[in-house]
Amino acid sequence: MVSIHSGRWFRFFILMMAAALLLAGCGSQVQETKPIEPKGKVYFTYFDTVSYIYDYSGDSAERFDDRSAETSLLLEEYHRLFDIYHEYAGINNLCTLNKKAGGEALPVDEKLIDFLLYAKEMENLTHGEMNVMLGAVLRLWHECREEASESPSKARIPTEEALYAASAHTSIDLLEIDPEKKTVRISDPEASIDVGALGKGYATEMAARMLEEKGALGYVLNIGGNIRIIGSRPDGTGWKTGIRNPSDPDGAFAMQIYISDTACVSSGVYERFFVAEGKRWHHIIDPDTLYPAATFSALTVITKDSGLADALSTALFCMDYEQSRSLVDSLDGVEVCWFFPDGEQRMTEGFSKLIVKE
Ligand code: AMP
Ligand code: MG
Predict the structure, then answer these.
(1) Which of 30, 86, 173, 326 has the most CB atoms around it within 10 Å of its CB?
(2) pTM of the predicted protein model
(3) What percent of the chain has pLDDT over 90?
(4) Ligand nearest to the CA of 123
């Protein structure tokens, strides 16, 4: 269900909600440095997660209400286009494309064409480690996670045979996009799209750019843990953002960083997992092994574009440290902190400069 509540009327209620919910599912969270009360705050639920818009600018109440309503509308549009579980009247979304896999090319909204072209670009950039066509494999893990949550005693993992068979239907080339005709087709009936690794970050970036084009400054978007900051704080400093400790995600932060005018996205083993055969199985699947990636326990990506940050958060997680590091070093303006299962942390030099020293 999609809901939006206008900020000022609900401020007290929302502050209480925020305190309770920020810890639920976010890799990182934004706080005020010296508590500066946001001038406006709105929350809503898209992409099955709680999201916030904070306004620290000098905007009037009316302007904030307009901006947050426009942001909400845009996010709702992406939510519908990216939904793989439901269809909506009048549009062909990802659910429709998956259902019609192997059939005719379908006309889709230009926003979906642009997103899927970007998804292909990210698959290429990440050497296939973030691949939205991994749906057939991810579905097997998803089914086991659902079953485990319904009856933990019967929890199981997918068989190797099933994973291997599904992996034959995951090539990015099975996604056929015709930008002129504005149609998309999945050419293999057993293939499917899953945009869990990229959709939220991309939609967050589109919302941030819309706000930037309209001249917004001093806004913070937190779309289910994908943080995108528009401008800096009114006093010119960055926002203090806590990074979760993957071995104690509900405890004290591993560190805090100052960020402005950028995105901050984390991927971690603690976000979604189930227990079977006495082991934890998390939700980020290495396309090479078809099992949960095992090198890191979490990582945080800081870069201006929230879509790129989201793509990288998943892809870097699926690599070994050397590959992950060399991809980051080949890109401009990308800072990363890697957390290893034994507690070790490594980070780029630029990332270490962001850390709050108190
Ligand atoms: P994130 O939290 O951004 O790392 O995204 C994790 C989600 O992306 C999972 O819940 C899956 O839906 C999906 N996913 C997992 N592994 C991959 C992968 N290697 N490539 C693309 N999507 C993935
Ligand atoms: Mg991601």
Answers:
(1) 30
(2) 0.91
(3) 77
(4) 1
